[in-house]
Amino acid sequence: MPVSVTASPTAAPARSVPVPARRRRRRWSPRELALALLFVLPALAGVGTFVIFPLFQAVFLSTRGSDILGNPTRFVGLQHFEQLLTPQFGHILLQTAEFTLIVVVAGVVLPMLLAAPISQPLRGMRVFRTLFSLPFAYSASTASVVWLLMLNPAMSPINWALRLVGIAAPGWTTDSNWAIVTVAGVTVWMVSGFNILVLGAGLAGVDEDVLEASTIDGASGLRQFVSVILPMISPSVFFAIVTTTLTALQSLGQVQVMTDGGPNGSSATLVYSVFDNAFHNNNSNYGLASAQGLVLLVVGVLLAVVQFGVIERRVHYR
């Protein structure tokens, strides 16, 4: 006969696993909030004073007229931006692009060619590293005066060397076709010292085992540099490109000292045009200068987007 089994009414119920309570967010006390604000306040004050306020001030001034003293007057809307839609301003933008291209390409390639041999562990290389990095210590005005003396037709050693080989020296700062190239060349000389230090540090960090392995695989010379060394130092190269681009866009001292934007505006860049409209010869046209400054800001942002959105993708971080 089958026997039926029934649960005892006195059987103990199954034990339930306790559900862990959600962690409550810790509330900061007023004292901690005040202390955090105290530490952040210096940084906020610096950003607000030197970034946020000048940006809003530039936007404000770009929509206002100016009196003879430069004080903002009536609202003029976008008239200052309409004044930029001229062939003259387009020519300034083209000269800025030409100047920046020369400085960035030559200011990165030449230091790379120099950094490769002087990074070798040979006797006396420390002297050459010091000599090649010296331009980093010069200010824009000092370097400009030195090169003005070097290119002076009455005493120029460069012109003398060219005459020895039968080449007529051009008017380095007086010829419209050479003025911006000359200023760009001086800027290349100025940025080369810093870029040699950056690229030299990158070359010093190249793993010798990787170079030996690539040599065994048959890579040597230019092939080894392009396929092995360049990807390994790509973070240093990218950093040099970004900093050199910023230096080129902000170059003012050498343009002002060497050519003053001339002859006939052939060496005027965008940042020099901002200076010329705002401060040069007491112009005090802050509205137009602010509009040009905002254009310079847009150009810088666009270049940053291209550099960090396109070039950085080819950078190999280790």
What does this structure look like?
The chain has 318 residues and is mainly alpha-helical. It is 63% helix and 2% strand. The chain is built from 13 helices and two strands, in the order αββαααααααααααα. It has helices at residues 30-62, 79-82, 87-118, 125-133, 140-150, 157-164, 179-204, 208-216, 221-232, 234-249, 253-258, 270-278, 286-309; strands at 64-66, 72-75. Strands 1-2 form a two-stranded antiparallel ribbon. A hairpin with a 5-residue loop joins strand 1 (64-66) and strand 2. Helix 5 crosses helix 7. It is globular, with a radius of gyration of 31 Å. The protein starts with 29 loop residues before the first helix and ends in a 9-residue tail after the last helix. The model is unreliable at 1-8 (pLDDT under 50).
